[in-house]
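I had to read the description of the data format several times before I understood it. In essence, backbone conformation is discretised, so a fold becomes a row of integers matching the chain in length. I therefore recommend that a typical entry be quoted early in the introduction. For illustration, here is how one protein appears when written out as sequence plus structure tokens.

***
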Amino acid sequence: MSNIVLNRPDLPPEIARRRTFAIISHPDAGKTTLTEKFLLFGGAIQMAGQVRAKGEARRTRSDFMQMEKDRGISVSASAMSFEFGRFRFNLVDTPGHSDFSEDTYRTLTAVDAAIMVIDGAKGVESQTRKLFEVCRLRDLPILTFCNKMDRESRDTFDIIDEIQENLAIDVTPASWPIGMGVDFLGCYDLLHDRLELMDRADRNKVAETIVLNGLEDPRMADHIPAHQLAKLREEIEMARALLPAFNPQSVLEGHMTPIWFGSAINSFGVKELMDGMAKYGPEPQPQRAEREIAPEETAVTGFVFKVQANMDPKHRDRVAFVRLASGHFERGMKLLHVRSKKQMAVSNPVLFLAADRELAEEAWAGDIIGIPNHGQLRIGDALTEGEALRFTGIPSFAPELLQTVRAGDPMKAKHLEKALTQFAEEGAAKVFKPFFGAGFIVGVVGQLQFEVLASRIELEYGLPVRFESSQFTSARWVSGSKDAVEAFSLANKQHIAHDSDGDVVFLTRLQWDIDRVVRDYPEIRLTATKEMMV
């Protein structure tokens, strides 16, 4: 996606009011809690669930897979749509756990902006840095929320410096915290000269807002103890002198991030962040295909960025999450599935309100809809009103861990194949069928994914499975002329497998294997990523 274009035509009002964004963070920075509060303030849920609370109460609304519920982590990106004032928010939740980062990378191809959540005590952590890099590649506008200010946290200037240095982006404070930990009272809203005070008694209550005439307003003293007030005035004076001034254009271009401070668990600072997304976040942006697709084009186009299997365990359904790139979609429309060149009647598209779904009568460019299907739709697929488009830039990464998998009951090998094919299409794992020998080799990015797969295969298919170590350590996709690939495959049979799309894969044990191929087969290319394209 190129930088945001300034002289683009005005979008139809329905499209212009949409904000499609993801929330990214390191695990445990409070992303799920923040997502909950967004839904609470958007009126989508009545009572925010607590991830850490006991029993049923901890089943937060955006985490619906059994394993997420048991562990209190989000492992699958789910999309939620809700109204906020005159805006329509499409919030895509992303797994923060690094073992699931591939899902997150793909999710970031489907949004126009990101909210980065940082833990006030820990600052910029490794996973944040990785995800931020992906946002940079796409020039995504980023808003930052520094969470957990009600606990002991680091100095405000230190946090800002660390973001500026580590992520090479200008940071401008949108609010400034007053105290921290037990002394945290709230924030001064620098964009509107207002005092926002936190209510510790009721975690779901919106903060009290006091509109002031700047920092010198005598009424400040009614709400803030003298020593904290003096410190606040001094810090803000320094911040205004040292840090860049807020520039909405710079934010849209992805060069500057405004930072809000708050405590998601106490519902504090969340509404200001949402107002910021509504006011300063980007409208739906043009999407990259062989040509640029503008949201205001009347023909409907969209692409699949995620497939989720068995969202409803009672029905073996698969839902493809589709980001609409252009047009006004209506239920029952016939769309061309570009890869198979077949028309598809989209009769029961769904909109997600966390784990609740409702039928979508209509949707506009920028929206994310779910299309239930029986395996026709895969990641990277395009749906259009007839144009043979291919969307670009949806990555698939080579797995870093490989294990062989066997069914506990050898008679059920066929069922295992079906289960694995399904997870491969969902993008949850890479599944390779070796040229020699029985069984499958499963590749993932992080160890935790093997546990998730084993538990899901057992839960959803009633199949206990064993993962065992494999002699191979990594996989590369093979490309070149048809003859060259065939000759290469024949000569290296013991290393060859096919992925779920039927593409040839070279399984390696050591870097030496790769070097040998580069040396002996100059006409063959080995790649660690494959574009998920038609």
About this structure: The longest helix spans residues 226-242. The two ends are 20 Å apart (CA to CA). Residues 46-61, 67-77 have pLDDT under 50 and may be disordered.
